Amino acid sequence: MSELRPALEAFLARLPADDIVSGASRESGLERARLEALFETFANEARAALTLVERHLAPGRRMLEVGAGLCLFSLFLKREGFDITALEPALGGYDAFAALRDAVLAIVDDGGLEVLRISAGALNPEEHGRFDFIFSNNVLEHIPAWEEALDAMLGVLAADGLMAHGCPNYVVPYEPHYGVPVFRWWPELSRWLFLPGDADAAIWESLNFMSHGQVRRYARRRGLDVRFRSGLLYEALRRLDGDEAFRARHRGVVGRMAAWVARSPMAELARHLPPSLTTPMAFEIKATGG
Q: Are 237 and 255 in contact (CB under 8 A)?
């Protein structure tokens, strides 16, 4: 469905970004520059989400986006005629994220998007029905009990349904939210060594540092068919070379090294690395009845 890519760009270009940021700044008292940068980050996440799920989108499929963030991607899919529900549990407060989310839903949403304001672990088929396709992008690493969350998603997945999830693979010692090294077995030491003193530590405190091996073992214990996509590190390197907003999020020492690799012949080697040794990772799980 390659026609969705220009459609998404047109949707993002038409968003009243200035009104959204102004409204969020007025309600929260936060600086516009911070809100503008965060809004651009989530716009880029919508592009990444499309790359993750594009081949699975089809009219008539009931779909659920878990951790929809500002709901930009779900709003886009809804306007394109897809049957999409957004799950975004973050409520209350007027931090930067909450302020922007509230402004987006107040200004952009015409009331047609259903937003479930619950955690993924609270999903149940009696209340929420079943979905043909469930997906998340850069969400699972923020869920402490991520296995239980996946169990709940499987519980509302249709018999022939599919889940697709993208997140970091912390076997690779790199934390992409901050652009710093990380040793997943020693997160507090990594935080002390690498996290800048002026960094907002809220994201770090939410991370579970999950890995490719953990996902594979989870699927094996439950008798699930899990498949990992290859070549994602190569795609990330290409984004570093051509996507200014993405590059701005990876300006640390590791990010600068990756940007150098992206411009060198070594980038081609990333095509052939196994998913277990690369980050990010993207995997698909079929329903047990599928």
A: no
Q: Indicate if the alpha-carbon torsion angle 153, 57, 40, 101 is positive or negative.
A: negative
**Who has greater pLDDT, 190 or 288?**
190
Q: How far is it, in rounded angstroms, from Cα 260 to Cα 50? A: 27
Output the pTM of the full model: 0.89
Q: How far is CA 273 from CA 179, 181, 233, 234, 260, in A?
A: 21, 20, 8, 9, 18
Distance CA 163, CA 49 (A): 13
Number of helices followed by number of strands (H, E) in the chain: 13, 9
Tell me phi and psi for residue 227, to 5 degrees: -130, 135
Least Cα distance to 42 among 83, 89, 90, 100 occurs for: 100
Residue 79's nearest CA partner among 42, 112, 105 is: 112
Q: Which residues pair with 116 in a beta bridge?
A: 87
- Cα first-last separation, the chain: 24
Q: How far apart are CA 125 and CA 227, in angstroms?
A: 25
Residue range 148-171, pLDDT digits in tens:
999 999 999 999 999 999 999 999
Measure the CA–CA gap between 235 and 231, rounded to whole angstroms.
6
Q: Strands of 281-286's sheet, edge to edge?
A: 114-116, 83-87, 62-66, 131-137, 157-167, 281-286, 226-228
Give the integer Cα–Cα distance in Å for 129 and 124.
7
Distance CA 58, CA 62 (A): 9
Q: Which two tokens stand for residue 76?
A: 């886009």
**DSSP SS3 for 92:** coil
